[in-house]
């Protein structure tokens, strides 16, 4: 049976307010150890599998990094900028000395690893009726494993993959904007309403959700296929506050 994950974390940080609390700066560094971290072995068949415990192994993990957060707390223009530099890894041995484990027992990045994570958030109050906002997000691409070669067996071509999660999908980023309309308040009414008009991913960036590889049946050449889920998405929302 698989044991629950156990976490041990150490964090050290500082907070400084200046300009009469108009601005604030937070800096924190952290180190986390994780026990009983679970991952699947190479070639595992997960769906359907009635004996899932035979294709997964448990090991240990670690996460460490530095976080910086700068805020403008008040005024017509407010918001914050945050940046995290971090690494998330795990190491999983085999159940016996004769088993290779995962990645031959060496440390490797897990699927949650994001070395760079930047967020910029702004909110501008134009007047009592209109408020505008923007959010920019930039992150390192998800760790993946690309094929580094290929071999043939009985006329069939098979890809040969490198080490676990040694590659990355391209950088992930998008910009979202919004405009909030608050109608004139009715003092005798116990609820208030607002309209929120937004555009997700305003410059229509097709971020990679996954990248797969195949051999073209007509030309015989190798090719990569990108899967992207969302491009630009406009929206309109009506909110009621009690």
What does this protein look like?
- With 242 residues, this protein is mostly beta strands.
- The chain has strands at residues 6-18, 23-40, 56-72, 77-91, 108-109, 116-125, 130-139, 143-144, 147-153, 156-161, 167-168, 172-181, 192-200, 210-215, 222-227, 233-241.
- It is built from no helices and 16 strands.
- Strands 1, 2, 3, 4, 5, 6, 7, 12, 13 and 16 form a ten-stranded antiparallel β-sheet that branches. A two-stranded antiparallel sheet has the order 8-11.
- The radius of gyration is 24 Å and the shape is extended.
- The mean pLDDT is 90.
**Uncertain ranges:** none
Shape: extended
Strand content: over 45%
Order of helices and strands: EEEEEEEEEEEEEEEE
Find the count of extended strands (DSSP E, 2+ residues).
Answer: 16
Largest β-sheet summary: 10 strands, antiparallel
Compute the separation of the termini in Å. Answer: 48 Å
Rg, rounded, reads: 24 Å
Structural class by helix and strand composition: mainly beta
Mean pLDDT across every amino acid position = 90
Helix content: under 10%
Number of helices: 0
Provide a compact summary of the structure:
The chain is mostly beta strands.
